[in-house]
UniProtKB/TrEMBL annotation:
Record GO cellular component, one term: plasma membrane
UniProt main location, coarse: membrane
Subcellular location: Cell membrane
Keyword Chaperone: no
Keywords (A to Z) from UniProt: Cell membrane, Glycosyltransferase, Membrane, Transferase, Transmembrane, Transmembrane helix
A biological-process GO annotation: lipopolysaccharide biosynthetic process
Name of the protein this chain belongs to: Glycosyltransferase RgtA/B/C/D-like domain-containing protein
Annotated transmembrane regions: 7-24, 61-80, 87-106, 112-130, 137-155, 161-189, 201-219, 299-316, 328-349, 355-375, 380-398
UniProt topology in membrane: Multi-pass membrane protein
UniProt source species: Candidatus Gottesmanbacteria bacterium RIFCSPLOWO2_01_FULL_42_22
Length: 515
């Protein structure tokens, strides 16, 4: 390929902009919640050589994936720092790799398409804030792009790319349940293009896949097939071995339905109209999803839906094309179709609760599809569109706040421990969308753990609480809602706490009391 200094300069600027946006006020705005907290407990124990897990932490349905992510990130904790920000910086590095690889892959359509796709990915407010989190989902795009690049090379006959394809698939199936859609997607692509992998490489890949997931079998054998029962019982009613029965997706919960969440989330990758409050942006409780949906014009949601239908219709017809760019468009459309179908079955058939982050795997394909459409615009209109896109996506981040951010939580913990001194204490709260927000691990990291806490029901497998021991003090953290009304009973509980406790301070939105 001929060296093009102009292209190199532009993609360097895009990467620099992406890095700046992902590191802007990084610690101040950093989001730290229960998923990061569970991962921190597992990874810390592994890094300190105290426990070698056979499975990861439970998902929302109780089913556990493999622990590979924790083994890969444990060296960061052991040789650098178990600080919550450590994995956050690693996820930022992965996102920069994603920008570069997206440019390379989308350039198979045209260099201009590659530049536009990487620019959209680099600047999109919703994409940026998800890649600023220190959790496993921040690495999804990088692994997906390696997978797609390997798949394109396999289609062209480069059999050795089966190995990186298999490794990326192994990683994806250990990061998030939503990435399991890449399994049927892979099958469809292999059948469609009649890919005949080298037998030796296929056997090695299958062996690696089995080895990587063998921990789940060990976990099941140790725990009377608990993990398998959680998975199977999710799809059957009346079984006690499950998290809880799914509630009907009606009223405010209808926002979880596929036809609501899919276009709304993809629209928000382009137009972040809801708020510059990052806590609200991350929230997936129904009132917050509804608030974010209502902030988007109906015509914009409708336009995104029409665009998706149009793109799927046009691109799925490119199946037999031999050009890499055309194949990429077909693969993008095919994955979107598979993923949207899975989400539809999950929400309509099983009434499963959704979240915006279940659509993260679609983001790179959506940006590719949109870029391929934007290059058809007149040059002046294209420039105006990109400048407008940059403004409306960068401005909210520059003025962002996070009342449930890591800094505020650390200050709350530090103030509380100073007031408690050497006395024993318990940790209490009242359930809102924010009460399971990473507080328990911060006490562990500070070297002073509560004897028991309201988080023990979620985290006690990682430490040993003493539910019967008397404590000297009771620490209460109140986490009010930021949208809509607080849950029933919250205000009465708050009044009772205020009347019987010392107010240690308000940190962001968190109120801390000691009694």
């Amino acid at each position: 390929m001929r060296f093009r200094p102009k292209l190199l300069f532009i993609i360097t600027l895009i990467i620099a902009l992406g890095l700046f946006l992902r590191l802007w006020r990084f610690e101040e705005l950093f989001y730290y919640a229960i998923d990061e907290e569970k991962a921190a407990y597992i990874t810390s124990s592994l890094a300190n050589l105290k426990h070698f897990p056979a499975a990861g932490h439970p998902s929302s349905i109780g089913f556990r994936l493999g622990p590979l992510f924790y083994y890969l990130t444990a060296p960061i904790y052991r040789f650098f720092s178990p600080h919550p920000l450590s994995i956050g910086y690693l996820s930022v590095a992965a996102s920069i790799f994603s920008i570069l690889l997206l440019y390379k892959i989308a350039s198979k359509i045209s260099p201009k398409t590659g530049l536009i796709a990487s620019f959209l990915y680099s600047v999109s407010f919703l994409n940026v804030i998800y890649e600023r989190r220190g959790w496993q989902l921040s690495f999804e795009s990088a692994i997906i792009l390696v997978f797609i690049y390997s798949l394109l090379r396999l289609i062209k006959g480069s059999v050795n790319y089966l190995f990186p394809l298999a490794l990326s698939l192994i990683l994806m199936t250990q990061l998030e349940v939503g990435l399991f859609t890449f399994i049927p997607f892979s099958f469809l692509v292999f059948v469609t293009y009649q890919i005949k992998p080298h037998k030796k490489l296929l056997l090695i890949s299958l062996f690696l896949f089995i080895i990587a997931n063998s921990g789940l079998l060990i976990f099941d054998l140790r725990h009377n097939f608990l993990n398998s029962r959680y998975l199977l019982n999710y799809f059957r009613r009346g079984n006690h071995v499950r998290i809880a029965e799914n509630k009907p997706l009606t009223d405010d919960r209808s926002i979880y339905l596929a036809h609501q969440l899919i276009p709304a989330t993809l629209a928000r990758t382009l137009y972040p109209s809801a708020s510059n409050n990052l806590a609200i942006e991350y929230a997936n409780c129904p009132q917050y999803l509804g608030f974010k949906r209502q902030s988007l014009p109906d015509y914009f949601i409708f336009s995104i839906s029409l665009f998706l239908i149009y793109f799927l219709y046009r691109s799925l017809r490119l199946m037999k094309k031999k050009d890499d760019g055309q194949r990429l468009l077909f693969l993008s459309a095919l994955f979107m179709l598979v993923h949207f179908t899975a989400i539809s079955l999950y929400t309509y058939l099983f009434q499963g609760e959704m979240a915006e982050y279940y659509l993260l795997p679609v983001f790179v394909f959506f940006f590719i599809s949109l870029s391929q459409t934007l290059i058809k615009l007149p040059k002046y209109l294209l420039w105006l569109s990109l400048i407008f896109f940059a403004y409306i996506n960068i401005q909210p981040l520059m003025t962002a706040e996070n009342p449930y951010g890591l800094n505020a939580k650390k200050k709350a913990v530090k103030t509380a421990l100073a007031a408690i001194d050497t006395l024993s204490f318990s940790l209490e709260s009242f359930q809102t969308c924010w009460y399971s927000g990473g507080y328990r691990y911060l006490f562990t990291r500070a070297g002073r753990e509560p004897v028991r806490s309201y988080m023990d029901q979620y985290l006690s497998e990682y430490y040993t609480p003493d539910p019967n021991k008397e404590t000297d003090r009771e620490l209460i953290i109140l986490t009010p809602e930021l949208v809509g009304e607080n849950p029933a009973g919250y205000e009465a509980y708050r009044r009772q706490v205020i009347s019987t406790s010392e107010h240690l301070g308000t940190f962001g939105a968190m109120e801390v009391y000691l009694r």
